[in-house]
Specification:
With about 210 residues, the protein is mainly α. It folds into 2 domains: about 140 residues, Alpha Horseshoe (Serine Threonine Protein Phosphatase 5, Tetratricopeptide repeat); about 60 residues, no CATH class. It has 9 helices and no strands. Helix 3 packs parallel to helix 5, helix 7 packs parallel to helix 9 and helix 8 runs antiparallel to helix 9.
């Protein structure tokens, strides 16, 4: 092979690796910012924290238009913002979140350990159903089961499937999945998110146990 071609290939591979590393760092930074906004921000400043988070998420989508990861995390940020802050804009936020997740699914459906499936599943059971909105328990179950197939030991797919079962009245099965979520390994670089999720898990487990 021509030496110039080898050098060119080396440059291209190095550039690609640097870009991928930059994306990973940017996504981790956004994940940590989400955890602070969701779990470690006072109620009087939380609305602004989510506005900043969503703005930063949009910048990442613009920076990496062909990657699924920024779209997923902008969608997660929007849907969490809608749940925490509510208001008239909440339905618009969850609609945009669904569009972003569907776009990301076309790029790389199993990216981020199945987070697209987890996020779509959680949207479908938490959003009101027709004629108000697009909520659909059958779709929720399908997406959450897909998420578990990709990441069977993950804290989030087990948490959200457990919560879905709790909302559906299947308390014994809810306890099974919520317990699995509580036993999930810690995620690198995300101690605050894991700690916050485990607090929510204990609350959901208490709710499920009280129904038996």
């Amino acid at each position: 092979m021509d030496i110039k071609l080898l050098i060119l290939l080396g440059v291209l591979l190095t550039t690609g690796n640097v870009a991928f590393a930059g994306l990973n760092e940017d996504i981790l930074s956004l994940q940590q910012q989400w955890a602070r906004a969701n779990y470690d921000t006072s109620a009087d400043t939380q609305e602004q924290a989510f506005k900043d988070l969503v703005a930063d998420g949009r910048k990442l989508v613009e920076r990496y238009p062909d990657r699924a990861e920024p779209k997923v995390w902008l969608a997660i940020s929007l849907s969490t913002d809608a749940g925490v802050n509510g208001g008239f804009s909440a339905l618009g936020k969850v609609k945009e979140a669904r569009r972003l997740l569907e776009a990301a699914e076309k790029i790389d459906p199993e990216v981020l350990n199945g987070s697209i499936y987890t996020s779509l599943g959680s949207l479908y059971y938490q959003v009101p159903g027709w004629p108000i909105e697009f909520g659909d328990d059958d779709k929720a179950r399908t997406y959450l089961e897909k998420a578990l197939a990709v990441n069977p030991k993950g804290i989030d797919p087990n948490y959200f499937y457990g919560d879905f079962l709790l909302e559906s009245g299947d308390y014994a099965q809810a306890i099974t999945y919520l317990t699995r979520a509580n036993q999930a390994p810690e995620r690198p670089g995300r101690p605050l998110a894991d700690a916050g999720r485990r607090i929510q898990l204990e609350e959901k487990l208490d709710q499920a146990r009280s129904k038996l």
